[in-house]
Amino acid sequence: MPPEGALPLFIGVDVGTSETKGAVVASDGSTVAQARRPHALLTPEPGFAEHDPETAWWQGLCSVVGALLAAPGVERSRLAAIACSGIGPCVLPTDADLRPLSMAILYGVDTRAEAQILRLATSLGADEIEARAGCHLSSQSAGPKIAWLRDEQPEVHRGARWFLTCQSFLVARLTGQVVIDRTTASHFHPLYDRRTDAWNTAGCEDFVRPGQLARIVDATAVAGTVTPTAAAATGLPAGLPVIAGTADAPAEAVASGVLAPGDQMVMYGSSSFVIQVTDRPSASAVLWPSPFALPATHSLSGGSSTAGTLIRWFEREVMGAEATPETHAAFSSLADAAAPGARGLLALPYFHGERTPLFDAGARGVILGLGLEHTRADLARAVVEGVAHSMADVLLAFDRDGHPPSRIRAVGGGTRNRAWVQAVSDIYGADQEVVETLGACQGDAALAALAVGALDDPEECRAWVSPRDVVRPRAELRDLYRRDHERFGALYARTRDLLPDPARAEARR
């Protein structure tokens, strides 16, 4: 326990698509230390998105924790708990000693399991899948990816003792306890049954057993304590409580003060993700229902596949620049220099397929209307607006399902690109409160503080963050963007079948 009178400190570590971030936060919400470590997103084949779990996940955690513990003001005697979050749902097969047997298959941006989705949809039936999951199977579903391992990597599959997600792997390495929070477990469709809050592998016995899946717990449950072996690897004190944690999106929602029904978070990252808190379980044809990270709450979520990754692609391939803060600022200025509507250019941003609401792994990018009069600034503007149109489609899915948000909070590194955030507000037609947080690692720290009683009520997390800006839609652009959004949908509908069959089949392989 911390010395008397000293505020306890909480470590949060989040594994993202392109980097691991960590923070030490005191129980009053003040930041004591931050650290980050980049890692590689592996795309060895079309439709594949992977991480090396040893280097990206475990070594990333060890490196970030080591930097945090060495930071001024981080007194080991004040450390009260650690929580981890990670991209999810991921699928990582490990042996009984938690050694990875393959690269980790990432969340919905990995679209390799299309054939398994179709097979499971047929064998189980749409009614049973919807009863279990509250939604249809998609690339965001972890179950078909386990089936893919059975079909495509049978030796790996046969050797698997566990099928884990990111934070489950880290928590198991830290404590020896194999657990998963129910928010992430609920995305292991069709293996999680929301009717019973338990694993249900009926009809899936040919590729997974319940004993190969982690024990389901609350995100705020204390999974165990840091083992001596993990202490030696990380520098953490042996015996430090380790919280089960959750996926990155709900952790970031907590960090941004999205806590009550109607609150919605829009995450501007490598991909985009939207999560909205609800007061009851829901079912949806295009959104993903799940329990929320806080007790007695639920959520709906959706996301696009290509957001910040497309902007980084443009920076690298068109601007010829590496990803640096200066490059990101230059891109934002370039896009801002062009007129709204990009002088008629329209971009489909589906460079790696699409999730909500299309669920088309074979979708690909298009730039329509190019002429010799167009400039690099016009192209940059078209890319930003294309990403914004795809994000607006996600937001509109909530409206169509009867869940319009009462408040939207925008978070993530992409919020520093004002043109991007403004385009989303202009196209969707709603205010966004831009909040500055440390990211999901701050939410991890808050969950850890709740878990050990340093915070008594989740509402206390709101005091840890406040909006730094409000972005409002521009009324004078409403008609322009309404027409462009109609063109955006029509462009996809009219071009989707023009992609050569081999390319689309390869993308879905």
Walk me through the structure.
By secondary structure, the chain is α+β, with helices and mostly antiparallel strands. It folds into two domains: 9-250, Nucleotidyltransferase, domain 5 (2-Layer Sandwich), CATH 3.30.420; 264-436 and 474-509, 2-Layer Sandwich (Nucleotidyltransferase, domain 5), CATH 3.30.420.40. Helices cover 35% and strands 21% of the residues. It is built from 16 helices and 23 strands. It has a seven-stranded mixed sheet, sandwiched between helices. A six-stranded mixed sheet has the order 3-2-1-5-14-13, sandwiched between helices. Strands 4-7 form a two-stranded antiparallel sheet. β17 (288-291) and β18 form a beta hairpin. It is globular. The relative contact order is 0.13. Residues 502-509 have low confidence and may be disordered.
Record keyword descriptors for this entry.
about 500 residues; alpha+beta; Nucleotidyltransferase, domain 5; 2 domains; 6-stranded mixed β-sheet; globular; disordered C terminus
